[in-house]
């Protein structure tokens, strides 16, 4: 027994899919060339009011949506910008990304990022791969010399964060590391600390600046300062070096770490070793990451303006990409401030 076919069922009943309009369709409907449509859509050139109205009406009537990849072939731009962070696990760098994302979104740009994991990921291949997908990059000034040299040779718009690199005629954004460390040092000096240790990170070019600023703050005070260096600026390294720093015969009464992650590792291990923070030792760091306000005691730190740095760097990058003169070569200094919490306190006896 045969069943008659339903004229309203089967593939034949599906409405035909409308073919997406092309730039040629828009040009034909508006009575102009495809070059005129391309320039109008991408803002590359102004035309008479009558021509612009015809093109705009054709775009609306046909429902034309420009393809970003095709637009990139026309304009030579991808519509993307990139940022390379040193360790995405560090809240300092996620704050940097957050700050950069706002002006990028305002400018209609997609923000891509790559993490080189403090050198564990190959820097140069990562930069080269990302550079093919973006119109400009925000990168750390403490990349390897090889990576920095490649960036200069690439002529890609670049803004450096953290400090000025050795490259000439470049744009960079960051705090005055020496001045910021001097501010923190003066805070500790005013609290009566005289035996001070600095846990630095030799992999960071401005760790030396922070050490010099700390020494500067104690000039003329008869203080004893000593420096230790770690392999990585992580909480694990702070814990690892804690015994070496804290349990010496001439134990310090204050420890300053290169960043908050190191400081938090030191603080946690100090308590595990039976020391009271800040009664036995004051501990401070840099970056003002969010975790520092939730520890017990809260961590005294230098706010390095992570979000602000990302935002300013992105505005400079956008200006470069657009060919504006606002992004003149030079270093823009972000204001730093000392955030005092419970991990630092006055000594019982103040020696001046």
What does the model show?
This protein has 352 residues and is α/β, with parallel strands linked by helices. 39% of the residues lie in helices and 16% in strands. The chain has twelve helices and twelve strands. The longest helix is centred in the first third of the chain and has 16 residues, at 91-106. The N and C termini lie far apart (109 Å).
Write the layout of secondary structure elements.
Elements: H1 23-30, H2 34-41, H3 49-62, H4 68-75, E1 80-85, H5 91-106, E2 110-115, H6 123-131, E3 137-140, H7 145-154, E4 158-161, E5 171-174, H8 177-190, E6 195-201, H9 207-217, E7 224-230, H10 235-246, E8 254-257, H11 260-272, E9 282-286, E10 300-303, H12 306-321, E11 330-333, E12 337-339
Parallel strand pairs: 1-2, 1-3, 3-4, 4-5, 5-11, 6-7, 6-8, 8-9, 9-10
Antiparallel strand pairs: 10-12
Helix pairs in contact: 1-2, 1-3, 5-12, 8-9, 10-11
């Amino acid at each position: 027994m045969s069943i008659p076919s339903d004229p309203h069922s089967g593939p034949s009943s599906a409405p035909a899919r409308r073919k997406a309009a092309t730039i040629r369709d828009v040009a034909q409907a508006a009575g102009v060339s495809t070059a005129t449509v391309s320039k109008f859509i991408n803002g590359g050139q102004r035309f008479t009011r009558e021509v612009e109205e015809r093109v705009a009406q054709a775009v609306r009537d046909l429902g034309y949506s420009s393809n970003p990849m095709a637009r990139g072939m026309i304009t030579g731009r991808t519509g993307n910008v990139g940022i390379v962070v040193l360790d995405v696990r560090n809240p300092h760098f996620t704050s940097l990304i957050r700050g950069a994302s706002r002006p990028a979104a305002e400018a209609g740009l997609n923000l891509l990022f790559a993490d080189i994991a403090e050198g564990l990921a190959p820097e140069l291949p990562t930069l080269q791969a990302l550079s093919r997908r973006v119109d400009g990059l925000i990168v750390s000034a403490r990349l390897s010399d090889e990576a920095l040299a490649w960036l200069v040779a690439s002529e890609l718009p670049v803004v450096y964060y953290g400090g000025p690199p050795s490259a000439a005629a470049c744009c960079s954004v960051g705090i005055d590391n020496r001045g910021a460390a001097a501010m923190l040092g003066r805070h500790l000096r005013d609290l009566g600390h005289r035996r001070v240790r600095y846990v630095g990170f030799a992999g960071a070019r401005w760790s030396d600046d922070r050490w010099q600023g700390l020494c500067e703050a104690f000039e003329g005070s008869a203080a004893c300062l000593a420096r230790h260096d770690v392999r990585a600026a992580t909480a694990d390294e702070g814990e690892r070096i804690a015994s070496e720093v804290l349990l010496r015969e001439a134990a310090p009464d204050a420890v300053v770490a290169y960043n908050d992650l190191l400081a938090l590792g030191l603080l946690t291990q100090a308590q595990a070793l039976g020391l009271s923070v800040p009664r036995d030792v004051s501990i401070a760091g840099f970056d003002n990451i969010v975790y520092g306000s939730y520890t017990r005691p809260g961590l005294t730190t230098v706010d390095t303006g992570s979000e602000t740095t990302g935002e300013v760097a992105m505005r400079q990058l956008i200006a470069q990409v657009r060919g504006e003169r606002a992004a003149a070569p030079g270093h823009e200094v972000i204001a730093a401030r000392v955030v005092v919490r419970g991990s630092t306190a006055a000594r019982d006896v103040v020696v001046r």
